[in-house]
Each structure stands twice: as C-alpha cells, then as structure tokens.
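Page 42, continued from yesterday. The earlier attempt failed because a stray header line got pasted into the input along with the sequence. Redoing it now with the clean sequence only.
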Amino acid sequence: MTAIALTIAGSDSAGGAGIQADLKTFAALGVHGASAITALTAQNTLGVEGVHVVPPEFVTQQIAVVARDLEIGAVKIGMLATSPVIEAVAEGLKLLPGVPVVLDPVMVAASGDVLLDKDAIAALKSVLLPRAIVITPNLPEAAQLLGAPQASDEDEMRAQARELKRLGAQAVLIKGGHAKGASSVDLLLDGEGDMRIEAPRVPTKNDHGTGCTLSSAIAAELAKGASLREATAAGKAYVTAAIGAADELEIGKGRGPVHHFHAVWPRK
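This time it went through. Structure tokens are written below.
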C-alpha cells in the first residue's frame, strides 16, 4: 500500500511554503500527497501581498472527497486564516477518525505578515488542538497560544510545552529555530516525557518554509508507520539537511526556500 498524507493548508504562490512545501516534502520522503487548500496567498520571497480565504464549505468538501477515496495515513494542518475555516477543517476531520494529525499553528509568515486572525486563536485551541497527535509551534507561536512572553531558554520552552499539553494537546513539539546559539534545539513533550532534539544552526537567509517542511515531514513519517518520536527525529534530520542545502538554490530576492530535494537533485 502506498503511503498517503493529506495537507490542509494555504497556498504559497512562490512555492516556498504552505501546500507547495508540504507536497514537495511528502514527495521527497516517498509519500503521495493529497491536499485541501484553505487560502490562496499572493506572495514571493519578499513577503505576502494578499490573502484570499477559501469558502469554509469548500474546504470541508475538499477533505471529504479525498477521505472517501484515499487511504490517508496522516494529516498535516497549516495555515487556517479564520475561525470559520477552522470549524470547517474540524468537520472534515470527522471523516478521518483515528488518523494522526500534525497541527502546525501558522500565525505569522517568516516575513512578519499575519496569517491567522486574532479571534481565530481561541477556536484553534478549542477545536483542533485536542484532535492533534502533536502540535508544532515555534517560539513566537507558543507564546501567542499561551498569551505569554516568548521563551528565552530551554527551561521556559519546557514549561510552555507543559502548559500547551494541559490545554489538550496530546504532544507538543516546541521549535527553537528563533532562539540564539550555535545549535537549534527542539523539545518534544509527549506521554513518555520530553525528548530534546538538537542540530547545528545553519547560517543562511534561505529558510522560508522551514516550519511547514518540518511538520509535513513528521506527517509523512507517521503515514509510513513511524512512531511519533521516530517521525519527529526523522523530520528534524530532513529539515536540517534541507536548510543546509538551501544556498545551492538561487530563488528570489528575499528569503528563499529550503532545498526539499537536496537528496535527489545534482549537488553544486
């Protein structure tokens, strides 16, 4: 049986993040990707210039028709934009009982552009957070979800992960990419305790789509049958390598994408 993962997220017209990054990640990891688009964005490597939200009922319909036909092994959720879209996604997920969901609470683009309405944060926490096998906030997103200052060290990251788990998340992966230091440390808190995942920090401006790529890599590994811890470790290794090879690409005038196909394209 071919492993299949479904991404529910926004479209990036420049191809660096969102649905496009998710599908590239699925393909690079040997998984067939299906998609349900929640919003269209007019963006490039310099920033987001426009957002068009897909009608909520059509979001649900996209999920429904895929669920009726394909054996979905895992779901990745990214940009949701509004409360009605969040409710629509929750309705669609009812057709995928027991399928693991990786929730990336996308709130702000790497450029600083807002991608989630402020009034939608409560809906995200109450409606989707308890449905996810893991949520994958970065440091600013974790702080926004909790209405707290951004964590400044690993102890504070661990404390915020515990708070998010108390809100109903089955597991929490707080990403340390926004922190300082020679290493990038992510912390996974699940039913077994916490797991620290460290990788060298790569000095590059071409890091567009890293959060989308990590969460979709985790979903891809779950679709192939990996445990959450195995999927998280493999996803971290994949995105680290994709960032490490990002400067081999020459795309755009701003923050370019990571190199999703670093393992298959000819190396420079």
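Notes: The chain has a mean pLDDT of 93.
Reminder to self: strip header lines before submitting.
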